[in-house]
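[job 4471] stage=fold_predict status=RUNNING
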Amino acid sequence: MIDWACILPDSGSAAMLDLQQALQQRKQQSLYRCRLTLATPQSVRVRIDGKTYLSFCSNDYLGLANHADIIQAFKDGLDRFGAGSGAAHLITGHSVAHQELEEQLAAFVGRPRALLFSTGYMANLGVMDALLQQQDCTIEDRLNHTSLLDGARLCGARLLRYRHNDMASLKRRLQQVEKYPQRLLATDAVFSMDGDSADLAAMQAAAQSSDSWLLVDDAHGFGVLGHQGRGSCDAQLSQSGIAIADNTILMATLGKACGMAGAFVAASEDVIETLIQSARTYIYTTATPPAQAWATSKALQLVQQADEQRTRLTELITHFRRGAQAHDLPLMPSATPIQPLLVGSAEMAMQWSERLRTKGILITAIRPPTVPQGKARLRITLSAQHTLEDVDQLLDGLST
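[job 4471] inference complete, writing structure tokens
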């Protein structure tokens, strides 16, 4: 019989002590993260540990996460397709529900084809894995989402970064990449922690002039911006009469404005076929449940019909920013539902968050390494479910 006590480290081992010390250090630096356990559906009011909070934390921008029609569609999908897909897409996991949703998404964003992924993180990693090799390079905004940065690191390509939303800095970087066989320029469309937007027209032009791919992560613009919520590319390019170039690749998530889960990549026929053949995060994972895709089709329909919710969001953003200015609150520039309030230190951000919780308001403190040192913040997100009175309650809580 194997004596496992001789093989496995005990709780006093050096490795375990190192972990304990690192965790304690995170606590002392106000960087320790704790999960909140909701006892209610996602909404602007949630119940945690027996107490109800007015929440400004969710990315459920249109308030669809608990929509009755989507819930019913999910039930219908379960009745029709069962609970799980049972296999990867390239085995037997790809159902008619997945196929129809991909076709609907492609038509909605005006691209030849779309491909579903389990998460936005996996989608970004998959694109870079399929298109780039070690001798290639990526050029990225310094404030890009971690999935874009990790995609570059994991595919082994050279990673060059430029100053946030600085086109002059980008152009200098592009002058350094001619020697690389493949070049991919990647950006958030709406930056998840800052709420501001990339200049997609300028970036697409820069990508075309340097013969580079352009990967646009529109996780926080899809469903909110553009005609019928088609997203940032529609808002900045299509509505300005600029055609979306063949070398532009769109990634958007379905777990924010759509109220569901998962993500998709929309691009040319050749790009999508290349992802199917080569993207490891697509090939080597079980497909999402067909019932989820079935319900997401209903969510996409509701997104297209949500002009009233998008108008309400705009009103709420304007009302909040005017109130914040009147109270001299240090808001960062943003015209999107992401309204970051810059605090500074991680300790101060935690204090603000905890003080608001005592007033029944839930806002998460965002701290390093998610944001740079000295730029911890409260990431306030607005939903179409909020009311002007909810926003006034938030302003009162922030100013007292």
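[job 4471] summary: The chain is about 40% helix and 15% strand.
[job 4471] exit 0
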